[in-house]
Amino acid sequence: MTEQNTQLGRAPLWRPDPWTLGAVLIAALVLAPVASVVWIAFHPTENIWPHLTATVLPRYLGTTLALMLSVATLAAAMGTGAAWLVSMYRFPGRHWLDVALFFPLAIPAYVGAYAIVDLMDYAGPVQTTLRATMGWTSARDYWFPDTRSLWGAAVVLAAALYPYVYLLARAAFREQSGCTYEVARALGQGPWGLFYRVGLPMARPAIAAGVALALMETVADYGTVHHFGVQTLTTGIFSTWLDGGNAGGAAQIAGVVLTLILLLVTLERLSRRNARFHRLSRAQRPIERQPLTGARGLLALAACLVPFGLGFVLPVSVMLVHAVQAPGEWLAPGLLAALANTLIAGGGAALTTVALALVLVYGLRLSAHPVGRAVLPLTTLGYATPGAVLAVGLLFPLAALDHRLADALQALTGTDPGLLITGTAFALGLAYVVRFFGVAQGAVEAAFGRISPSLPLAARSLGRGPGGTLTAVYLPLMRGSVLTALLVVFVDCVKELPATLLLRPFNYNTLATRVFELASLERLSEAAPAALLVMAVGLTAVIPIARSGRT
């Protein structure tokens, strides 16, 4: 039939291969919870959309956009500036800052929020010391910036999220050729000209990807904005669903979030569509760092210390002080169980997520069908979906499936097996996979794009099949990027809070939920050990990421 169609001048029918079929199934798995949320939004039990648009939705949307703009500006400035300085110059402290600037990636933003409020609030040590030193007796005697505000939330979020920009920008700067900068210097370009006219344009795709990741986290954040009293779309979802008891209204607000993120992802991809740079030769000259001495060296050191201090030193110091004040909390019941649950759930989800991302991206690269190309960007929506809404999208279909499965097993065995899906950590692990699939997919897709197309073509011409090309060509060249994706997803799973709170089985605590439960009751001394363990677990993953690209 194929030969007859060819002879008649017809194109052969498209037949899906195992790689393509697997990719489509994975995409369906990732998109199913989002589709469930959309279904709930369009089929609510009680439609309150007119009430939302007439009252709170404009305020939620305006605050969210203002927060996104603030975080994007601060995170891009901190991440790109620090990456440029440590990649292009030698100055005091550069060697250890090259690694230390990654450390805030291990700190949940909500822990940073607890720390800065505890330090800077009216009853905190900063204002207490000021009043004692200056002789002030009340808040009316002096002015102090309100930490529980939009700017406070923006600073905390940017300090926690700038490592996404730093990670990708640093890799982009280091992959550039030193010859390019030598030519630019010979043409009279100074330090600012090298940055704006040479380095920044070539690193723009990586910076845009890092900022997009930071903005997705910003839109999905709940713990930080809730603690600072900032009313965003995400807090509106929580209040509409948990306080108002209207899942349909919450899903409708989530639809606004998904639309916003879809526009963001589309703009980011369009901005870097034609900006591709391939390394043509392994023998190209690496960048030679220029020395900065005296005041310029100290200024570069200070510029790098600001994001590191805000994102890492401040929250760690505050939590360490509380932990030292109450050492008995390290032996509190439930702490070790929460640590074990965190490692098992986060580690299993990270391995599964990265493996599925490899199959999806590679399978769609092998397929010429336009449906696959259209599906790929949509799979990043799970990363932008707030954890609570994603939990709703999983909870309803999984609960229905769980009950049918339990009924079928009871009919066969005569005993009630209980809830095997929602009653175990399976639903939580699935939420992690869907929530952070966009992180793994983005890293894997970028790694595939950095490999020159001639290499896999050469492997295929030598008789390698798709699987052999993946294992013999792609994976060895992508090993660092795959490890980075694995560790970043693991850290995100450890820090995830909203989905964990809603999907965890009964009496199943992770470190994140333990920190939230205790800190929300203003019991920071009891929450400090779990918070420090979250940071320690995150650092075990972040340090290899930093050292893997260290030069």
How would you characterize this protein structure?
- This protein is mostly helical and 551 residues long.
- It folds into 2 domains: 17-47 and 326-551, MetI-like (MetI-like fold, Orthogonal Bundle); 59-275 and 292-324, MetI-like (MetI-like fold, Orthogonal Bundle).
- Helix content is 74%, strand content 1%.
- It contains 24 helices and 2 strands.
- The protein has helices spanning 2-7, 18-42, 49-54, 57-88, 94-100, 109-120, 125-134, 150-174, 178-186, 191-220, 223-228, 233-243, 247-271, 294-325, 335-366, 370-378, 381-384, 387-413, 426-449, 454-461, 466-495, 498-503, 511-519, 524-548; strands at residues 89-90, 290-291.
- Strands 1-2 form a two-stranded parallel ribbon.
- Helix 2 crosses helix 13 (247-271), helix 2 (18-42) packs across helix 15 and helix 21 (466-495) packs antiparallel against helix 24.
- The longest helix has 32 residues, at 57-88.
- It is globular.
- Residues 1-13 have low confidence and may be disordered.
Strand content: under 5%
* Overall number of domains: 2
Helices and strands, in order, run as HHHHEHHHHHHHHHEHHHHHHHHHHH
Main β-sheet, spatial strand arrangement = 1-2
Low-pLDDT segments = 1-13
Let me know the CATH homologous superfamily of the largest domain: MetI-like
Strand count, sense and barrel status of the largest sheet are:
2 strands, parallel
Counted by DSSP, the helix tally is: 24
